[in-house]
Design goal:
By secondary structure, the protein is of the alpha/beta class. It has helices spanning about 10-20, 30-40, 80-90, 105-110, 155-170, 180-190, 195-200, 205, 210-230, 240-245, 255-260, 275-285, 290-305, and strands at about 1-5, 25-30, 45, 50-55, 60, 70-75, 95-100, 120-135, 135-150, 170-175.
Length: about 300
């Protein structure tokens, strides 16, 4: 299969690397030193499940050079989706599938403002990974998984085809007939990154403070309440299950949003805690913890974007 990996970070680098290793025609989008390192040394992936290298790796810094792929694997930051939608549209063939794997619940909706909905399959992934150095991806926690499904809740031949693609590449995946609910389940969990960002603590450190664990519980509850109003079918005990699941994370792990804020980079703040605040206002749900985090972190975001 011909695949375009748009965003060769922790997500696109790991999953794209696995797809390339399985013999697919994969082209990666990267820029700067990351691009140069992949061109020179291939794409190196360090993983708790085993290291591997894709060499040579096809890589470019222009979306329009990626041909007409069968699958567009969209793994850029959530705030980049809207700006890239036009370029992505330019490489779509009549049967190209676009699989967005952004954090949050807005990616498919934003793509559909520019791209015909028939191309879009809803998706998410679970993985702890990051760019360790130019050309080097480090997967350091959680067994990676991709969850995906049609936006209209109907199983199709192309979802079965994608499942086989992932199976053949050794990627754990699951087809769901309710991708919106699955997106909300992940969204509820990732917004804890706002607490990590403001406290500058990792998951292990934050678990040592009962006050912060209670703050996490309140944050999760707020987002769960918004999800119900938004029409998601998240089970009623999801917050309690999430608290237990968070306790299984590697102690030193953090979130990409927290790491970006600490580094003074633009982050997904607007697409995580900010989205909770906006949807809470839309549906009449109070979100004081998320509002506090969003308002406190917003000056850092503004400073990062005005550099």
């Amino acid at each position: 299969m011909k695949i375009a990996i748009i965003g060769t970070g922790g997500v696109g680098g790991y999953f794209g690397g696995k797809l390339a290793l399985a013999g697919n025609d994969v082209t990666f989008l990267a820029r700067g030193a990351h691009l140069q390192a992949i061109q020179s040394n291939g794409l190196q992936v360090k993983s708790t499940l085993g290291n591997f290298v894709v060499v040579p790796a096809k890589v470019t810094d222009h979306i329009k050079d990626m041909g007409k792929p069968d699958l567009v694997f969209l793994s850029v930051k959530a705030w980049q989706v809207r700006d890239l939608a036009g370029d992505i549209k330019s490489i779509l063939g009549s049967h190209t599938c676009v699989l967005p794997l952004q954090n949050g619940v807005m990616a498919a909706e934003e793509l559909a403002l520019v791209i015909d909905k028939k191309h879009i399959i809803g998706g998410l992934c679970r993985i702890f990974s990051m760019i360790e150095a130019p050309g080097v991806i480090n997967h350091f926690g959680i067994d990676p998984v991709i969850v995906f499904g049609e936006m209209d809740h109907v199983n199709t031949e192309r979802t079965i085809m994608l499942k086989k693609l992932f199976d053949d590449a050794g990627i754990t995946s699951k087809i769901t007939d309710d991708i919106q609910t699955e997106l909300w389940k992940k969204f509820i969990l990732i917004c804890v990154g706002g607490i990590l960002a403001i406290t500058r603590l990792n998951y292990g450190e934050i678990s040592e403070y009962p006050q912060l664990k209670e703050m996490i519980r309140n944050l999760l509850t707020e987002i769960y309440d918004v999800s119900v109003k938004a029409g998601a079918h998240v089970e009623s005990d999801f917050v309690q299950k999430s608290m237990m699941y968070i306790d299984t994370y590697p102690k030193e792990s953090t979130t990409s949003m927290a790491r970006d804020i600490w580094a003074g980079k633009p982050s997904e703040l607007d697409y995580q805690n900010g989205t909770v605040v906006r949807l809470g206002e839309r549906y009449g749900v109070e979100t004081p913890v998320n509002k506090f985090l969003y308002n406190c972190l917003l000056p850092f975001e503004a400073k990062a974007r005005n550099k």
